[in-house]
Amino acid sequence: MWDRAAATAMLLPSVVAIAVFVYGFVGWTGYVSLTRWNDVLPNYAWAGLRTYADLFDTFRFRIDLLNTLRFTLAFLAGCLGVGFTLAVLLDRGLRGEAIFRTIFLAPLAISFIVTGVVWRWLLNPGSAQLGSVGINLLLERAHLGALRTGWYTDPRIGILAVALAALWQLSGYTMALYLAGLRSVPDELREAARVDGAGEWQVYRRILMPLLQPITLSAVIILGHISLKIFDLVVAMTGSGPGFSSDVPAYFMFDTTFRGNHFAQGAAIAEVLLVLVALLTVPYLIYSTRAEAGR
């Protein structure tokens, strides 16, 4: 009895803090999104779902959702592809593996703000007076000047430039996940497949990649919720970009709430983001719980 009381006493402050500062504020944000508070002074007059209807009629928000989709697809495909490729190379006994592993994981120690500042310079398109700089200068020196582009100043690819910076920072994390999964596969399983006549491509396609599906799912969930909430990298690199080409819901939420004082609209954007993240993570949590219970 005393052990249970002691455990309850130790957990109670955390439970109360989470209930108030997480779920309480989520509930308060949801309530604000249903009011007419769109000025500095609070206005709790009931508006119902009108704010949400107006939000989805807003051209900028529809652009933000499309940008989020483009960013997520490019970010996930890039991280999974680059991460898996690096993991395969390291798993094959590459000389200097520890050095390369450290280099690939080093970006994880950097904040998105620092990454944004660095990549803003690297992707600077230059000007007629100064000439090319950053990656455009590198392409020019490599006699690939035809590949030069405006990067984040080009409305067609602004959000993809942000995705490139995010890919650089988190592909090493994906590599670490895949490398751990590859190292957990017994060598006997691979050797048995080779004895049966399977080539290296077939070993990876038929044996290793199916075994790595749980890791791929975990990576998609982790990277997916990061992409949905991306904010600081956008702030540091581009802002909303020309023609909202790199604008995202989180940046719109900040802009409309703290610069425009449209608190109900900002709360509605926050709730939409919460629903999007929940649609991604809740099914995974249910699947993980059922898998654990079935063991």
TrEMBL record:
GO biological process: transmembrane transport
Main location: membrane
InterPro entries to which the protein is assigned, alphabetical: ABC_transporter_permease, MetI-like, MetI-like_sf
Keyword Nucleotide-binding: no
One Pfam family cited in the UniProt record for this chain: BPD_transp_1
Keyword Hydrolase appears in the UniProt entry: no
Chain ranges of the ABC transmembrane type-1 domain: 65-286
Mode of membrane association: Multi-pass membrane protein
The protein's name in its UniProt record: Sugar ABC transporter permease
